[in-house]
UniProtKB/TrEMBL annotation:
PROSITE patterns reported in the protein's UniProt record: LON_N
Name of the molecule in the record: ATP-dependent protease
Species of provenance: Streptomyces caeruleatus
Gene Ontology molecular functions: peptidase activity
One matching Pfam family: LON_substr_bdg
Any one GO BP annotation for this protein: proteolysis
UniProt keyword ATP-binding, yes or no: no
Classification of source organism: Bacteria, Bacillati, Actinomycetota, Actinomycetes, Kitasatosporales
Every Lon N-terminal domain range: 5-223
Keyword terms, alphabetized: Hydrolase, Protease
Signal peptide as annotated in the record: none
Length: 245
């Protein structure tokens, strides 16, 4: 099944079930939000989020280094090259905007939630903002997803403890974390301190069990590293701030 939706590229990966706050100030994305506001409130206001492979989340707005005479790019594909589809990772996530609030200065405050994984088929830059043709990707459980989810949750608790420097106390109880394998896989993928390519790999795993197996290896490796290092991971190196868009 294919669908055409507005496209919002980011320097981060959105997973199903995770909340995405956005501060929208560029004109191309403001135009997108104005268009989404035309949708009736009882209908989903959906757009697709893809991680940027090669390009800039915020387009250049003025001449700068190294060429102060350079002319800033304009238009919906600014910063993404002549063929925007090549600038993005091939699998993204549909976002459902629960809140789109326009400020007095014309910028927007948006709160959305990831819903469904999609494969990027094509990108259209002919309008005021990017749109994309997308193929919805089903979430298959795979083999032994339930048992793997239990193992990932145990490993994730150890990872949490190491990050917090807690050795004797648990940071949360079993009731605080989900037990549905697919939900576990996405929650852990979003919560771990990983770079964008690794998070992207987890997003596009062929099934839940494959994602959980990958996460189990990552959790064990990261926990071992944290145990032997004298300081905590530099989270600012792997997690960017909330998008300015």
């Amino acid at each position: 099944m294919t669908v055409r939706l507005p496209l919002f590229p980011l320097n981060s990966v959105l997973f199903p079930g995770l909340v995405l706050p956005l501060n929208v100030f560029e004109e191309r994305y403001r135009a997108m939000m104005r268009d989404l506001l035309k949708t009736a409130e009882e209908e989903p206001r959906r757009f697709a989020v893809v991680a940027i492979r090669d390009g800039h989340e915020v387009a250049q707005s003025a001449p700068g280094m190294p060429d102060p005479t350079s002319v800033p790019e304009r238009g919906p594909a600014a910063g993404f090259g002549p063929d925007p589809v090549k600038a993005f990772h091939g699998v993204g996530c549909v976002a459902d905007a629960a809140t789109i609030r326009e400020r007095a200065d014309g910028t927007f405050e948006v709160l959305a939630t990831g819903t469904t994984r999609v494969r990027l088929l094509s990108v259209d830059a002919s309008g005021p903002f990017l749109t994309a043709e997308l193929e919805e990707l089903p979430e298959e459980p795979g083999d032994e997803a339930g048992a793997l989810a239990e193992g990932v949750l145990r490993a994730f608790r150890q990872y949490q403890k190491r990050l917090a420097g807690a050795r004797e106390r648990s940071l949360s109880t079993t009731a605080d974390l989900p037990d549905q394998p697919s939900v576990v896989s996405y929650l852990v993928a979003a919560a771990m301190m990983l770079d964008t390519p690794t998070k992207q790999r987890l997003l596009q795993s062929p099934d839940t069990a494959s994602r959980l197996r990958d996460e189990l290896k990552l959790l064990r490796a990261e926990t071992s590293i944290i145990r032997t290092l004298p300081s905590l991971p530099a989270s600012d190196l792997t997690r960017g701030p909330t998008s300015l868009n």
